[in-house]
Specification:
The protein has 329 residues and is α+β, with helices and mostly antiparallel strands. The chain contains 13 helices and 13 strands. Strand 11 and strand 12 form a beta hairpin. Bound molecules: flavin-adenine dinucleotide (FAD) and iron/sulfur cluster (SF4). Iron/sulfur cluster (SF4) binds next to helix 8.
C-alpha cells in the first residue's frame, strides 16, 4: 500500500478547493470501487477527499415533473425509494440486479457512474493495458476476451462498462448535473460515458476537477411497460455478460415509443436509436421484435471468446421486449 492523506470535506465548495490545491487528489464516496483499485495498485491518489459529508443525499421532485437523485444517496436507498419504485421501477430493478445488498448500502449513485471496467487485464499489473497505462497495448484484444465489447471498441481498448444502474439511466435518458471550478453544467446521459477511441484511460467526459451533484430523471418513467434483464454467470454477485433495459410507451397493443439500452457490450451503455425507431407505431409482436433485434446486432464485432454475446444480445432484445409489452408469444 502506498501512503496517502485524507480529508473529510464539509461542503462542495471546500471539496473543490482542496482538490484544486492538492496534487493527485481524488474524491471518495462509498469507496467500494476506488479502495479496491488502490489496494490492487491500479490507481494511486496521494490524497483522498471524502465527500460523504456534503449535502447531496436527497431524492426530490424537479420542477418539470421528474426526480432528482442526489449523487451521494446510496444505491439501496435509491432503489427502495417510494417514488423511484412507483415511477421508475426500471431503475429500481436495474440497481437491485447489481452487486450485493451490503455493497448497495455503501455504494453511491455518483460512484456507480464512475466505477471502472472489470477487464481482467486492467486488474493484472503484469500485463499491458492501455486503460491502466496508456501506450502499453491491450492484452484483451488477442487474449481471453469473454467479457469484452461487441460494439464501439477500438484498437486501443475493448473493455465494457460494468454498471447495471447506468443501463437503466441510459434508457430513461437521465441528465447528470455536475459542478467544478468553472461552474455548473448538465451532461446528457448518452454523452456522459465515452467510447475508448485513442484515449481509453478516460471512461467519461467528467473532468477530474468536477463533482457529480445529481442524476436527474425526466418525467417519463415507463412504469407500465418496462423490464431489466441481466444475463450473468451466477445468479447474484456477478457482472453482466449482456444486460438490457427496456421502456415502452404503449397504446393498447401498439408501441408509441421504445427505449432499449444494452449493458456489458460496450465501453458505455449502448443505444441504437435507429433500431428503436423501427418500433414506432408498430404492433407489439414477436416478429416485429425480432426485426429490431436483428437491427441492433447488425454491426456487432466479436473477438475470439465473446462471439456468444451477439446471439445472446439478439435473443435478449426479443425476450426483453416481450416482457415489457407483456406478451408471451
Ligand atoms: C464485488 C463487487 C461486485 C459489484 N457488482 C456490481 C454489479 O453487479 N453491478 C453494478 O452496477 N455494480 C457493481 N459493483 C460496483 C459498485 O456498484 C460500485 O463500486 C459503486 O457503485 C461505486 O460507488 P462508490 O460510492 O462506492 O464509489 P467510490 O468507490 O467511492 O468511487 C468510485 C469513483 O467515483 C468517483 N466519485 C464518487 N462519487 C463522486 C462524485 N459525486 N463526483 C465525482 N466523483 C465521484 C471517485 O473519485 C472514484 O473515482 C460491484 C462492486 C463490487 C466491489
Ligand atoms: S480491453 Fe481495455 S482495459 Fe482491457 S486490457 Fe485492453 S486496454 Fe486494458
Amino acid at each position: 500500500m502506498r501512503p496517502f492523506s485524507f480529508t473529510k470535506a464539509g461542503d462542495i465548495a471546500s471539496a473543490l478547493k482542496i482538490n484544486s490545491e492538492t496534487e493527485k487528489a481524488k474524491f471518495i464516496a462509498g469507496g467500494t470501487n476506488l479502495l479496491d483499485l488502490m489496494k490492487f495498485d491500479i490507481m494511486h491518489p496521494k490524497h483522498l477527499i471524502d465527500i460523504t459529508g456534503v449535502a447531496l443525499k436527497t431524492i426530490e421532485n424537479t420542477e418539470d415533473g421528474g426526480l432528482r437523485l442526489g449523487a451521494l444517496v446510496s444505491n439501496a436507498d435509491t432503489a427502495y425509494h417510494e417514488e423511484v419504485e412507483k415511477r421508475y421501477p426500471l431503475l429500481s430493478n436495474a440497481i437491485l440486479a447489481g452487486a450485493s445488498a451490503q455493497l448497495r448500502n455503501k455504494a453511491t449513485n455518483g460512484g456507480n457512474l464512475l466505477q471502472r471496467t472489470r477487464c481482467y487485464y486492467f486488474y493484472d499489473l503484469t500485463t499491458p493495458c492501455n486503460k491502466r497505462e496508456p501506450g502499453t497495448g491491450c492484452s484483451a484484444i488477442n487474449g481471453y476476451n469473454r467479457l469484452h465489447a461487441i460494439f464501439g471498441a477500438s484498437e486501443q481498448c475493448i473493455a465494457t462498462h460494468p454498471s447495471d444502474m447506468c443501463v437503466a439511466l441510459a434508457a430513461l435518458e437521465a441528465t447528470v448535473q455536475v459542478t467544478g471550478p468553472n461552474g455548473d453544467r448538465s451532461i446528457a446521459f448518452e454523452d456522459f460515458h465515452r467510447l475508448p477511441g485513442d484515449t481509453p484511460e478516460k471512461d467519461s467526459n467528467l473532468s477530474e476537477d468536477e463533482i457529480i451533484i445529481s442524476i436527474d430523471l425526466p418525467p417519463k418513467g415507463f412504469s407500465e411497460n418496462f423490464t431489466y434483464i441481466k444475463n450473468r454467470d451466477r445468479a447474484s454477485y456477478s457482472f453482466a455478460l449482456v444486460s438490457m433495459a427496456v421502456g415502452l410507451e404503449m397504446e393498447n397493443d401498439t408501441i408509441k415509443e421504445a427505449r432499449i439500452a444494452l449493458g456489458g457490450v460496450a465501453h458505455k451503455p449502448w443505444r441504437n436509436k435507429e433500431a428503436e425507431a423501427l418500433l414506432e407505431n408498430k404492433k407489439a409482436t414477436k416478429e416485429n421484435f425480432e426485426k429490431v433485434a436483428d437491427a441492433i446486432i447488425n454491426g456487432a464485432k466479436a473477438y475470439q471468446y465473446n462471439e456468444f454475446k451477439i446471439e445472446l444480445a439478439r435473443r435478449t432484445v426479443v425476450r426483453a421486449l416481450m416482457q415489457a409489452a407483456k406478451i408471451d408469444k
